[in-house]
Amino acid sequence: MSGLKHTLGLLALMVVCIIAEEQKVKSVSERIEEANRNIVRRPDGPFVEDDIAYASESDRNADPCTSRDCKWDKASDGLVYVPYVIADHYTSRELAIIERGLQSFDSVTCIRFVPHSTQKYYIHIQSLDGCFSYVGRHFYVQDLSLKRSGCLYHDIVQHELLHALGFKHEQCRSDRDQYIRILWENVIPGWEYAFDKINTLNQGTLYDYNSVMQYSKYAFSKNNQPTMMPIPNPNVDFGVATEMSQNDIDRVNRLYDCK
Fold it and tell me: Which is the catalytic residue, given 57, 99, 160, 170?
């Protein structure tokens, strides 16, 4: 009888472990990587690397959104209205996730995502090829893709909206070498660009391991080994944010001079 109890106990423990593993919250970068894996891009679509869209491949190496005007305009009332259209192919549940992400900026920044009416520039949110956005304002109509299978999470919505407002990934910050070391030997060949250091405008804020724009330790790993290591303390946890950090919010407010 004791043997049976022991066996049942082990089985129960295994079930608990399996459930715990299934319920483990994935990081925003893990979700984006998963959603964008093996995506076949449309020939008539934008040039996309990772989750950032460009007008063309040559545009990827153009002046980053730091020294040119890529911000959305501020109105006379001090608010920044960013018009959007959401495609009608989302379910009511999916629509609620997107709208929650849009509204999450209202109480903490001067950004207001508003339904498009007659404005010249606006974001078109739709389920295209994975999760992606342009960085900053670019065109009269610019796509922001939240694919129905894989991209509809609060942190991903915020992540892509931050791209649209003008922000790059945290690990690409101009000062990143003081805070993380890229382990190039573990990066998937051809994906090194995901760790390009860019002349970013950091708004006087410190590097943020908890930013929703920070990718996880194993992002784009070819061998299940870390591709990034925090320094000087290698034990610092990072890349596990499930929503915007206070630093993310502060940067938006500083870039757009929110009062």
Answer: 160
